[in-house]
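Work Package 3 (structural annotation) set out to generate three-dimensional models for the target panel prioritized at the project kickoff. During this period the team completed the workflow that converts sequence records into discrete structure tokens, so that structures can be stored uniformly alongside our sequence database. As a representative example, we reproduce one entry of 179 residues exactly as it appears in the project archive.
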Amino acid sequence: MDTVKIKDKTFRVSIPEEEIKKRVKVLAARISHDMDGKNPLLLGVLNGAFIFAADLMREITIPCEISFVKLASYQGTTSTGKIQEVLGINEDLTGRTVIIVEDIVDTGRTMKSMVESLGTRNPASVHICTLFVKPEKLEVDLDIEYAAFEIPNDFILGYGLDYDQQGRGLKGIYSLVND
């Protein structure tokens, strides 16, 4: 399936499933090495990162835990610029090593806000792990320790990422075709 039509837009495969799996394994190995002995809490950002977070956790070889937070800043294909915490964190983060697991970091504003918010809960450390980062779109300074892919400023979907809640189940990553 090289191209798919989702609602009114056409998307073309840009990163096949095999490449994603390979990069997730590499990230998991780095996290397992770096976090050995720490029992990190993976904090997946819903809805987009749920597949990535699950696959990442299955590849991590050290004890770890997982929880989720739901944030919203997108409407259609553009960011609204306003971040809403829809579903909060119930865990006590005091003294914990927290790894935020995000699907994509573009402007970085959502991630910066989340890191600052988590910092008020006294974690030992907060780390950022993202499947995708768009370096040319970054507007804030972030320490992204774990990034599987650096991508151009394209609108993408698949592997958990969506266009108006559609396309999340695609196994590869698809980029919007400018028609």
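The beta strands are 3-6, 9-15, 41-46, 65-75, 78-87, 97-105, 125-133, 146-150, 156-157, 173-176.
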